[in-house]
C-alpha cells in the first residue's frame, strides 16, 4: 500500500527560505512540498485545491498573507493554514484565528518542531502553544462581544461532547471511537457546530468553547514535543 504523504504548499517572498524549507521537509517520508510560490497573488492563481497544509508568510511584496487567507476563506478550501512569520506577535493571534489561520508561529521555530506542528494541524485541525493559551486566558472575558448567533445551551449534548473532544485535539476517528459513533457522524457534528457558532475552522471552535465556558482553558490539550 502506497504511503500517503501530507501535501504542503509554501508561500513566502524569500526564495532562499522557500528552497531551504522545501528541501528540509521533502527529506521526511511523511511530508511532501507540492507547491511553492514567492507571492500571494501568484499563489492564488495556482491550483492549490489538493494541499493539506499551507505554510504562509504574512508580509510579502506581491500579495500578503492576509489577502491570501481572505481569498481562501471565500473559496471554502479544506487546506489548513499555518502562518509562519518573522512579524510574529502573540497579540496578533486573535486576528490570525479570525482570518482563518489554524496555527500562528514565529520563523525562529526549530525545524523539527515545525514538522511536528504540521502533523498536529493535519491531525487535529489546529495548534496552540503554551504562551498562546496564556493569551487566550488573559484576553477572554464576559465583556467580549459575542461573535455567533447560538449560545452553548442551544448546542445538543452530543455536539458539546464532540466540541470537548475537539479541544482535546482528538482526530475524527478518535472522537468516533470515544463516543461509539461513526467518523461520518462526527464530521456532521463538526459541520453543525461550525454553522451554529459561526466560526470558520477548528481553532475557532476552541475559542468558542473557552469563551462560552464549554471547557476550562486548563482542560485544553496542548502539543507535547
UniProtKB/TrEMBL annotation:
The modification 4-aspartylphosphate is found at residue 57. Residues 148-213 form the HTH luxR-type domain. GO terms for molecular function: DNA binding. It holds the Pfam family Response_reg. It comes from the Bacteria. Keywords: DNA-binding, Phosphoprotein. InterPro entries: CheY-like_superfamily, NreC/VraR/RcsB-like_REC, Sig_transdc_resp-reg_C-effctor, Sig_transdc_resp-reg_receiver, Tscrpt_reg_LuxR_C, WalR-like, WH-like_DNA-bd_sf. Residues 7-122 form the Response regulatory domain. This is DNA-binding NarL/FixJ family response regulator.
